[in-house]
Design a protein that fits this description.
The protein is of the alpha/beta class and 317 residues long. Helix content is 37%, strand content 14%. The strands form 2 sheets. A 5-stranded parallel β-sheet has the order 7-6-5-8-9. A 4-stranded parallel β-sheet has the order 2-1-3-4, sandwiched between helices. The chain binds phosphoric acid mono(formamide)ester (CP). The site of phosphoric acid mono(formamide)ester has 9 residues, from α2.
Amino acid sequence: MKHLLDTESLSLDEALNLLDTTEAVAATQARTIKTLPVLRGHTVSTMFFEDSTRTRLSFETAADRLSMDCISFSAKGSSVSKGESLKDTAQTIVAMGAEALIVRHHASGAPQRLANAGWVDVPIINAGDGMHAHPTQAFLDAFTMRRHFFDESKGKDLAGLRVLIVGDVLHSRVARSDVHLLHKLGAQVTLVAPATLLPVNMENWPCEVSYSFDEALATHPDVVMMLRVQHERMGSGGFFPSPREYQYNYGLDEARLGAAGSQALVMHPGPMNRGLEITAGAADSVQSVVTEQVTNGVSVRMAALYLLLAHGEEISA
Ligand code: CP
Protein backbone atom coordinates (compact mmCIF):
# COMPACT_ATOMS: atom_id res chain seq x y z
CA MET A 1 0.00 0.00 0.00
CA LYS A 2 1.67 3.24 -1.18
CA HIS A 3 -1.21 5.61 -0.34
CA LEU A 4 -4.54 5.41 1.51
CA LEU A 5 -7.01 7.25 -0.73
CA ASP A 6 -10.30 5.35 -0.51
CA THR A 7 -11.72 1.99 0.54
CA GLU A 8 -13.11 0.96 -2.84
CA SER A 9 -9.73 0.32 -4.47
CA LEU A 10 -8.22 -1.61 -1.53
CA SER A 11 -8.02 -5.39 -1.74
CA LEU A 12 -9.60 -7.48 1.02
CA ASP A 13 -6.08 -8.48 2.16
CA GLU A 14 -5.02 -4.82 2.42
CA ALA A 15 -8.15 -4.01 4.42
CA LEU A 16 -7.64 -6.96 6.76
CA ASN A 17 -3.98 -6.07 7.21
CA LEU A 18 -4.93 -2.55 8.33
CA LEU A 19 -7.59 -3.92 10.73
CA ASP A 20 -5.21 -6.56 12.16
CA THR A 21 -2.49 -3.94 12.59
CA THR A 22 -5.03 -1.72 14.34
CA GLU A 23 -5.77 -4.60 16.72
CA ALA A 24 -2.06 -4.86 17.59
CA VAL A 25 -1.80 -1.09 18.03
CA ALA A 26 -4.96 -0.93 20.17
CA ALA A 27 -3.44 -3.48 22.57
CA THR A 28 -0.55 -1.08 23.17
CA GLN A 29 -2.97 1.80 23.75
CA ALA A 30 -4.45 0.03 26.79
CA ARG A 31 -1.11 0.54 28.56
CA THR A 32 -0.35 3.46 30.91
CA ILE A 33 2.52 4.60 28.67
CA LYS A 34 1.00 4.75 25.20
CA THR A 35 3.93 6.12 23.21
CA LEU A 36 5.80 3.70 20.92
CA PRO A 37 9.27 4.39 19.51
CA VAL A 38 8.68 2.76 16.10
CA LEU A 39 8.64 5.92 13.95
CA ARG A 40 10.98 8.10 16.01
CA GLY A 41 12.79 10.57 13.75
CA HIS A 42 10.12 10.42 11.04
CA THR A 43 8.00 13.44 10.10
CA VAL A 44 4.41 13.65 8.85
CA SER A 45 2.20 16.62 8.00
CA THR A 46 -1.50 17.19 8.54
CA MET A 47 -2.64 19.40 5.62
CA PHE A 48 -6.16 20.55 6.39
CA PHE A 49 -8.01 22.75 3.90
CA GLU A 50 -11.32 22.09 5.69
CA ASP A 51 -12.28 22.17 9.38
CA SER A 52 -11.95 19.11 11.59
CA THR A 53 -11.86 18.14 15.24
CA ARG A 54 -11.72 14.32 15.38
CA THR A 55 -9.69 13.48 12.27
CA ARG A 56 -7.05 16.12 12.68
CA LEU A 57 -6.53 15.67 16.42
CA SER A 58 -6.49 11.89 16.18
CA PHE A 59 -3.92 11.90 13.35
CA GLU A 60 -1.76 14.31 15.36
CA THR A 61 -2.21 12.16 18.48
CA ALA A 62 -1.36 9.08 16.40
CA ALA A 63 1.86 10.74 15.19
CA ASP A 64 2.76 11.68 18.79
CA ARG A 65 2.11 8.14 20.00
CA LEU A 66 4.43 6.81 17.29
CA SER A 67 7.13 9.30 18.41
CA MET A 68 6.88 11.19 15.09
CA ASP A 69 7.25 14.89 14.43
CA CYS A 70 4.17 16.49 12.90
CA ILE A 71 4.04 19.60 10.70
CA SER A 72 0.55 20.93 11.28
CA PHE A 73 -0.87 22.99 8.40
CA SER A 74 -4.27 24.73 8.21
CA ALA A 75 -5.35 26.56 5.10
CA LYS A 76 -6.91 29.18 7.38
CA GLY A 77 -4.19 31.69 8.26
CA SER A 78 -1.80 30.30 5.62
CA SER A 79 -0.51 31.58 2.26
CA VAL A 80 -3.45 29.82 0.59
CA SER A 81 -5.25 33.13 1.23
CA LYS A 82 -2.60 34.75 -1.04
CA GLY A 83 -3.41 32.29 -3.81
CA GLU A 84 -0.80 29.58 -3.17
CA SER A 85 -1.77 26.37 -4.96
CA LEU A 86 -2.21 22.85 -3.60
CA LYS A 87 0.91 21.79 -5.52
CA ASP A 88 3.11 24.57 -4.13
CA THR A 89 1.75 24.10 -0.61
CA ALA A 90 2.47 20.34 -0.71
CA GLN A 91 5.96 20.83 -2.18
CA THR A 92 6.73 23.44 0.50
CA ILE A 93 5.73 21.08 3.30
CA VAL A 94 7.65 18.14 1.81
CA ALA A 95 10.70 20.43 1.46
CA MET A 96 10.52 20.90 5.24
CA GLY A 97 10.88 17.14 5.69
CA ALA A 98 7.37 15.68 5.67
CA GLU A 99 7.55 12.00 4.66
CA ALA A 100 3.77 11.61 4.33
CA LEU A 101 0.89 14.05 3.81
CA ILE A 102 -2.46 13.64 5.55
CA VAL A 103 -4.83 15.68 3.42
CA ARG A 104 -8.34 16.96 4.08
CA HIS A 105 -9.79 19.06 1.27
CA HIS A 106 -13.19 20.44 0.31
CA ALA A 107 -12.61 19.35 -3.30
CA SER A 108 -13.35 15.68 -4.10
CA GLY A 109 -10.23 14.17 -5.67
CA ALA A 110 -7.62 16.54 -4.18
CA PRO A 111 -5.70 13.76 -2.34
CA GLN A 112 -5.82 11.56 -5.49
CA ARG A 113 -4.36 14.46 -7.51
CA LEU A 114 -1.51 14.82 -5.00
CA ALA A 115 -0.86 11.08 -5.11
CA ASN A 116 -0.87 10.78 -8.90
CA ALA A 117 0.37 14.09 -10.34
CA GLY A 118 4.04 13.54 -9.54
CA TRP A 119 4.32 16.82 -7.63
CA VAL A 120 5.56 15.06 -4.48
CA ASP A 121 6.84 11.53 -3.91
CA VAL A 122 5.48 10.68 -0.46
CA PRO A 123 2.52 8.61 0.75
CA ILE A 124 -0.78 10.49 0.76
CA ILE A 125 -3.50 9.69 3.30
CA ASN A 126 -6.97 10.96 2.47
CA ALA A 127 -8.43 12.54 5.63
CA GLY A 128 -11.72 13.37 3.86
CA ASP A 129 -12.15 14.90 0.39
CA GLY A 130 -15.36 16.70 -0.49
CA MET A 131 -18.25 14.27 -0.82
CA HIS A 132 -15.97 11.47 -2.06
CA ALA A 133 -14.11 9.42 0.56
CA HIS A 134 -12.97 9.25 4.18
CA PRO A 135 -11.14 5.93 4.42
CA THR A 136 -9.76 6.16 7.97
CA GLN A 137 -13.26 6.95 9.27
CA ALA A 138 -14.51 3.81 7.52
CA PHE A 139 -11.74 1.76 9.09
CA LEU A 140 -12.46 3.05 12.58
CA ASP A 141 -16.15 2.28 12.02
CA ALA A 142 -15.37 -1.24 10.80
CA PHE A 143 -12.88 -1.80 13.63
CA THR A 144 -15.49 -0.73 16.20
CA MET A 145 -18.04 -3.14 14.68
CA ARG A 146 -15.46 -5.93 14.56
CA ARG A 147 -14.65 -5.47 18.25
CA HIS A 148 -18.32 -5.91 19.15
CA PHE A 149 -19.41 -8.59 16.69
CA PHE A 150 -16.39 -10.57 15.42
CA ASP A 151 -17.21 -14.28 15.24
CA GLU A 152 -14.33 -16.37 13.88
CA SER A 153 -16.67 -19.19 12.85
CA LYS A 154 -18.45 -16.94 10.33
CA GLY A 155 -15.45 -16.48 8.00
CA LYS A 156 -15.21 -12.87 6.91
CA ASP A 157 -14.74 -10.33 9.70
CA LEU A 158 -18.22 -8.79 9.51
CA ALA A 159 -19.99 -11.69 7.78
CA GLY A 160 -23.75 -11.29 7.91
CA LEU A 161 -23.64 -8.14 10.05
CA ARG A 162 -26.67 -6.00 9.23
CA VAL A 163 -25.86 -2.29 9.17
CA LEU A 164 -28.20 0.64 8.56
CA ILE A 165 -26.58 3.91 7.44
CA VAL A 166 -29.17 6.62 7.85
CA GLY A 167 -29.59 10.20 6.70
CA ASP A 168 -27.66 12.58 4.47
CA VAL A 169 -26.00 9.97 2.24
CA LEU A 170 -25.77 12.41 -0.68
CA HIS A 171 -23.18 14.65 0.96
CA SER A 172 -21.47 11.93 2.99
CA ARG A 173 -17.95 10.77 2.16
CA VAL A 174 -18.25 8.55 5.25
CA ALA A 175 -21.23 6.66 3.78
CA ARG A 176 -19.38 5.97 0.52
CA SER A 177 -16.25 4.72 2.27
CA ASP A 178 -18.26 2.70 4.81
CA VAL A 179 -20.41 0.97 2.18
CA HIS A 180 -17.41 -0.25 0.18
CA LEU A 181 -15.37 -1.37 3.20
CA LEU A 182 -18.21 -3.00 5.13
CA HIS A 183 -19.34 -4.90 2.03
CA LYS A 184 -15.75 -6.10 1.46
CA LEU A 185 -15.75 -7.42 5.03
CA GLY A 186 -19.02 -9.32 4.54
CA ALA A 187 -21.60 -6.95 6.06
CA GLN A 188 -25.05 -6.30 4.56
CA VAL A 189 -25.49 -2.54 4.36
CA THR A 190 -28.81 -0.73 3.89
CA LEU A 191 -28.85 3.00 3.23
CA VAL A 192 -31.91 4.75 4.65
CA ALA A 193 -32.69 8.25 3.39
CA PRO A 194 -35.22 10.40 1.60
CA ALA A 195 -34.77 10.26 -2.19
CA THR A 196 -33.47 13.85 -2.14
CA LEU A 197 -30.53 12.82 0.03
CA LEU A 198 -29.38 9.84 -2.05
CA PRO A 199 -26.87 10.12 -4.92
CA VAL A 200 -28.23 9.54 -8.44
CA ASN A 201 -25.60 7.05 -9.69
CA MET A 202 -25.65 4.32 -7.07
CA GLU A 203 -25.61 1.31 -9.42
CA ASN A 204 -22.11 0.31 -8.29
CA TRP A 205 -22.76 0.72 -4.59
CA PRO A 206 -22.89 -2.75 -2.98
CA CYS A 207 -25.87 -2.09 -0.70
CA GLU A 208 -29.65 -1.95 -0.41
CA VAL A 209 -31.72 1.24 -0.18
CA SER A 210 -34.77 1.97 1.96
CA TYR A 211 -36.83 5.14 2.22
CA SER A 212 -38.50 4.11 5.49
CA PHE A 213 -36.44 4.27 8.68
CA ASP A 214 -39.19 2.56 10.69
CA GLU A 215 -39.42 -0.39 8.28
CA ALA A 216 -35.63 -0.75 8.32
CA LEU A 217 -35.52 -0.67 12.12
CA ALA A 218 -38.19 -3.37 12.31
CA THR A 219 -35.62 -5.81 10.85
CA HIS A 220 -33.61 -5.44 14.10
CA PRO A 221 -30.26 -4.42 12.60
CA ASP A 222 -26.97 -4.96 14.44
CA VAL A 223 -25.78 -1.39 13.83
CA VAL A 224 -27.62 1.89 13.29
CA MET A 225 -25.15 4.43 11.94
CA MET A 226 -26.59 7.95 11.86
CA LEU A 227 -25.14 10.53 9.45
CA ARG A 228 -24.81 14.24 10.06
CA VAL A 229 -27.11 16.49 8.05
CA GLN A 230 -24.45 18.54 6.22
CA HIS A 231 -26.04 21.98 6.15
CA GLU A 232 -22.80 23.54 4.87
CA ARG A 233 -23.05 21.54 1.61
CA MET A 234 -26.76 22.21 1.05
CA GLY A 235 -26.65 25.77 -0.28
CA SER A 236 -30.10 27.33 -0.30
CA GLY A 237 -31.67 24.06 0.85
CA GLY A 238 -34.76 22.23 -0.39
CA PHE A 239 -33.49 18.76 0.51
CA PHE A 240 -36.27 18.26 3.09
CA PRO A 241 -39.34 20.31 4.02
CA SER A 242 -38.24 21.27 7.56
CA PRO A 243 -35.87 20.12 10.32
CA ARG A 244 -38.94 19.03 12.30
CA GLU A 245 -40.17 16.78 9.46
CA TYR A 246 -36.66 15.37 8.92
CA GLN A 247 -36.39 14.54 12.60
CA TYR A 248 -39.86 12.96 12.53
CA ASN A 249 -39.03 10.66 9.58
CA TYR A 250 -35.29 10.07 9.86
CA GLY A 251 -34.18 11.07 13.37
CA LEU A 252 -33.05 8.44 15.88
CA ASP A 253 -34.74 8.85 19.25
CA GLU A 254 -35.33 6.54 22.23
CA ALA A 255 -38.56 5.13 20.75
CA ARG A 256 -36.86 4.16 17.50
CA LEU A 257 -33.90 2.76 19.41
CA GLY A 258 -36.38 0.59 21.32
CA ALA A 259 -37.85 -0.60 18.01
CA ALA A 260 -34.37 -1.50 16.76
CA GLY A 261 -33.77 -3.68 19.82
CA SER A 262 -31.24 -3.80 22.64
CA GLN A 263 -28.66 -5.59 20.44
CA ALA A 264 -28.27 -2.59 18.11
CA LEU A 265 -25.15 -0.44 18.38
CA VAL A 266 -25.66 3.29 17.79
CA MET A 267 -22.88 4.91 15.79
CA HIS A 268 -22.25 8.39 14.39
CA PRO A 269 -19.06 9.66 12.74
CA GLY A 270 -19.51 13.08 14.36
CA PRO A 271 -19.93 15.93 14.69
CA MET A 272 -23.56 15.30 15.72
CA ASN A 273 -26.52 17.61 15.21
CA ARG A 274 -28.27 16.71 18.48
CA GLY A 275 -32.01 17.18 18.10
CA LEU A 276 -31.92 16.70 14.33
CA GLU A 277 -30.57 13.34 13.13
CA ILE A 278 -30.16 12.03 16.70
CA THR A 279 -31.61 12.95 20.09
CA ALA A 280 -29.41 13.34 23.16
CA GLY A 281 -31.17 10.29 24.65
CA ALA A 282 -30.07 8.08 21.74
CA ALA A 283 -26.60 9.62 21.43
CA ASP A 284 -25.89 9.12 25.13
CA SER A 285 -27.64 5.76 25.54
CA VAL A 286 -25.83 2.63 26.71
CA GLN A 287 -26.08 1.34 23.12
CA SER A 288 -24.09 4.30 21.77
CA VAL A 289 -20.42 3.71 20.89
CA VAL A 290 -19.75 7.20 19.54
CA THR A 291 -16.85 7.94 21.91
CA GLU A 292 -15.48 4.42 21.39
CA GLN A 293 -15.33 5.22 17.65
CA VAL A 294 -13.20 8.26 18.47
CA THR A 295 -10.82 6.23 20.66
CA ASN A 296 -10.47 3.58 17.94
CA GLY A 297 -9.72 6.35 15.45
CA VAL A 298 -6.36 6.98 17.10
CA SER A 299 -5.38 3.30 16.79
CA VAL A 300 -6.53 3.12 13.16
CA ARG A 301 -4.49 6.19 12.26
CA MET A 302 -1.43 4.89 14.10
CA ALA A 303 -1.80 1.64 12.14
CA ALA A 304 -2.12 3.50 8.83
CA LEU A 305 0.99 5.61 9.49
CA TYR A 306 2.86 2.51 10.63
CA LEU A 307 1.99 0.52 7.49
CA LEU A 308 2.89 3.38 5.16
CA LEU A 309 6.14 4.41 6.86
CA ALA A 310 7.59 1.79 9.25
CA HIS A 311 8.97 -0.68 6.67
CA GLY A 312 9.02 -3.75 8.86
CA GLU A 313 9.83 -2.39 12.32
CA GLU A 314 7.94 -4.18 15.10
CA ILE A 315 4.75 -2.54 16.42
CA SER A 316 5.32 -4.04 19.90
CA ALA A 317 8.78 -2.46 20.26
N1 CP B 1 -15.78 12.32 11.56
C1 CP B 1 -15.03 13.38 11.19
O1 CP B 1 -14.41 13.40 10.13
O2 CP B 1 -15.02 14.41 12.10
P1 CP B 1 -14.17 15.74 11.94
O3 CP B 1 -14.77 16.52 10.79
O4 CP B 1 -14.32 16.46 13.26
O5 CP B 1 -12.76 15.37 11.63
